[in-house]
Fold this sequence. Notes:
Layout: H1 3-13, E1 20-21, H2 22-29, H3 33-46, E2 49-55, E3 62-68, E4 89-92, E5 95-98, H4 99-110
Antiparallel strand pairs: 1-3, 2-3, 4-5
The structure holds zinc ion (2 copies).
Amino acid sequence: MDSISERVAAFLRKAPARGHCFRCLAASLDTAETELHRIAELLMTVGEFRVINAQCYRCRRADTLLTFNPFAHPLCTLCRRPMPPTAPKTILRGLAYHAACWDRKARSAGGSGPT
Length: 115
Ligand SMILES: [Zn+2]
Ligand SMILES: [Zn+2]
């Protein structure tokens, strides 16, 4: 994840119950809305964040909000299945993998040369 994504993620993690619309996020984080839509897609692939339709915590408009979902298990980047907190996992550049999935990927990338 790049630094802007990490700022957005950190901002949302601090207030898990509070959804923010993209306009308010843009104002709070001094980031373009278009950039935030790109970041939202990135964050949703990790599984901890989701986009919902609800009332914005800040401006009270009903809109599309980006929220942190503290109850979601992050999804494995490779197999797309959730990863319970107890599962062995590997985190690389902000992306989470089951340890077993990562091993398989590392082995297939390392062993047999370019494909
Ligand atoms: Zn708002
Ligand atoms: Zn996996």
